[in-house]
Amino acid sequence: MPSDTPNNRPDDLGPNKKDVAVAVLRAVLGSVPVAGAVLSELISNIIPNQRMDRIERYLAGLGHRLEAATSAEHLRTLLVDPTNIALVEDGAYQAARALSPERIERITACVVHGVLTDSVSSLLKRRVLWALGELDDQHLAILRAYATPGFHAVDKLRPRPPISLGRPATLEEQEAVGLWHSALGKLEQMALLDFIPKLKPIDNKYPVPQYDSRGKPEGSYRVTVFGVSLLVAAGLASER
Question: 91 by DSSP, 3-state: which?
Answer without folding.
Answer: helix
